[in-house]
Amino acid sequence: MTGEFGFVEPDEADAPGDEWEDLDLEDIAQTEADEIARRQDDEFDEFRKRIKNTEQFKVEASVFDDATLAALYKLTRDGHIAAFGGPISTGKEANVYEALGADDREVAAKVYRINTSNFRQMRDYLEGDPRFEGIGSDKKQVVVAWVRKEFSNLSRARKAGVRVPEPIAVQRNVLVMELVGHADDRARRLAEVDVENPETAFEVVREYMRRLYSAGLVHGDLSEYNLIIHDGELVVIDLGQAVTVHHPNADDFLKRDCRNVASFFSRQGLETDAADLHEYVTAPEAEPAAEPDPATDPNPADRNPEDSTPADRGGDGE
Fold first, then answer.
1. One of 221, 251, 252, 312 is an active-site residue; which one?
2. How far is CA 211 from CA 12, 83, 99, 157, 205, in A?
3. 9-25: buried (b, 16+ CB within 10 Å) or exposed (e) per residue?
4. I need a surface site. Which of 18, 134, 140, 264 has the fewest CB within 10 A?
């Protein structure tokens, strides 16, 4: 892998403490997709039959229950998905599929599996988060909340100037986002490439970690496997588990992220230290310097001569 890495420009990021909008538990319990699946109108029934007759559905039938099909149907009806393609990646908790979005833009549809998601691992990230009080052990509600959290995390990270896939839409257990690269020319994980410029790559990664933290987020699972490269850009992915800095385990998660990142770049020949990285990420940002007050400025030589007093200029005022 060659080339220089550049930063994306941050917008005015929100302050820590308002990391996510309030989640409506009633809305999570009964999404529009659930309502569509229950209603089973003729239009949805035709959509379901069309999907089920594809070869892709026959291979991945366990992913597409009626409620997931209803979520895809709702996203299609809202114009976020125009055509659905094959898988880009498959995992225990979610599959990512290529799709066409508005204006024939290539997008990725991440479909979480309700029944096979790692509920216990999710709880490690959700416990202590006041937004999830009352969800209890209902797996479907936890997964739906998790998907919405990922959408919100991506939005917040982009606003803070972290290069992540652009979130587009969310419905029940389906997240539609920017497809980084192309299905036939997918972006590569940092672990899969020969990093020929590790110094610059490390600077970008640690700066993105700092920007996330300044925006009130800790990734919580950052490593060379959750960083991808495409067209000379480093992109942070998989922010579903990212937690607020106020989460009781946030610092433990951040220290683990720092160990993972420092260890990877140490193997690339850099002198890196997890503790130093943690200090850099969490260091408070310096306040901008205030304009000097001419009446109290201890260093009048730095002032505009027109603003100085006669005494400052060595005269007596006459």
1. 221
2. 11, 35, 30, 8, 10
3. eeeebeeeeebbeebeb
4. 18
Cα separation, 164 vs 162, whole angstroms? 6
Residue found by looking up tokens 């790692």 in the block: 118
Q: Based on the residue annotation, tell me whether 221 is a catalytic residue of this protein.
A: yes
Beta bridge partners of 167: 177
Quick: pLDDT tens for 83-121: 888 888 887 788 898 888 988 899 999 999 887 666 677
Active-site residue, from 238, 276, 293, 307: 238
pTM: 0.77
228-249 core/surface letters (b: 16 or more CB in 10 A; e: else): bbbeebbbbbbbbbbbbbebee
* CA separation for the pair 174, 117 (Å, rounded): 13
Q: Alpha carbon 283 to chain centroid distance? A: 21
What six digits make up the tokens of 124?
Answer: 């490690």
Asked if residue 41 lies in contact with residue 179, where contact means CB atoms within 8 angstroms, the answer is no
The answer to whether residues 71 and 173 touch, using CB atoms and an 8 Å cutoff, is yes
Is residue 170 within 8 A of residue 80, CB to CB? The reply is no
Question: Which ranges in 98-223 belong to alpha helices (H)?
Answer: 119-126, 139-159, 198-214
Q: Where are the alpha helices (DSSP H) in the chain?
A: 25-29, 32-39, 42-52, 55-59, 66-77, 119-126, 139-159, 198-214, 250-267, 274-282
Assigned token pair, 287: 């306040």
14 included as an active-site residue: no
Residue bearing tokens 């080339």: 3
